[in-house]
Amino acid sequence: MAWLVTGGAGYIGSHVVRAFLADGIDVVIVDDLSSGHADFVPAEVPFYRGSILDAELLASLFAENAIDGVVHVAGFKYAGVSVQRPLHTYEQNVTATTVLLQAMQNAGVGRIVFSSSAAVYGTPDTDLVTEATPKSPESPYGESKLIGEWLLRDEGIATGLAHTSLRYFNVVGSGHDGLYDTSPHNLFPLVFEALLDGRTPRINGDDYNTPDGTCVRDYIHVADLARSHVAAAERLQAGDAIEPVYNLGSGDGVSVGEIMSTMSAVTGIPFTPEIAPRRSGDPDRIVASGELARRDLNWEMRHSLSAMVQSAWDARRAAA
Known about the structure:
Blueprint: E1 2-6, H1 11-22, E2 26-31, E3 47-49, H2 55-64, E4 67-72, H3 79-84, H4 86-107, E5 111-117, E6 128-129, H5 140-159, E7 162-168, E8 170-172, H6 187-196, E9 202-204, E10 216-217, E11 219-221, H7 222-238, E12 245-248, E13 254-255, H8 256-267, E14 274-276, E15 287-288, H9 291-296, H10 305-319
Helix pairs in contact: 1-7, 2-4, 4-5, 8-10
């Protein structure tokens, strides 16, 4: 028996795959490689290249493999771009999830761990986000993730689907030298690419109501996040009681200024970031409590900021 990881060739999905393998659990991957990489897939893992919008592909996959459950990481993850491409975002994140759930139902697979997002909260009016914080997404991406959670909830009521959704905040670092974040929109790869190109990194605003004037956010290590996916899958498989949603958050957060200083120290490249205008609507501080996940999902911040930056930098240089 195995767990299917959708999007298992991507940055986060590939770490989830390796966390399952490290626990002795077989996996199968489906990924269309729109943002993933074939060389992120371990040679021993069955790999189906294609979209989860393809119902025939999913039917074949489930028929050819004994699947215990699904970790659903695949999706269109760019919140800013989703504002310009709402139809594409909903197709990739809502329609595709519906197709996947129908394929699971047809195959008698009744467990799923869903990759959700902090984007479901929008701009919360509290500086410590909990699972009970009101949801008010501000982009088609955030809306699509919240709809994904509703789909799981409704399937749970209708069919008994066992499920949980993990709301990510800012995922960084690397657990393996061959795996690194290639997103053109995330802070770490943007800074690294600037440094490797000899450019000065930029940050948005230094006049926030924070100790150093830069905004404070929650950054978590991808390997820690991956472990909690395995813990969630194991609890679902054991039939244990589990919450419908969990925040994977640090509880304290770090400022963008701290990240810049740490990146300079770790890379050995001295720089003072250029200050661009702050973005409209960006709150001073957003940090999430991870207490529920700590209680149930083996969630723990096992890496310091320096370790997160070092692992990400090492992985990026190893790929150069």
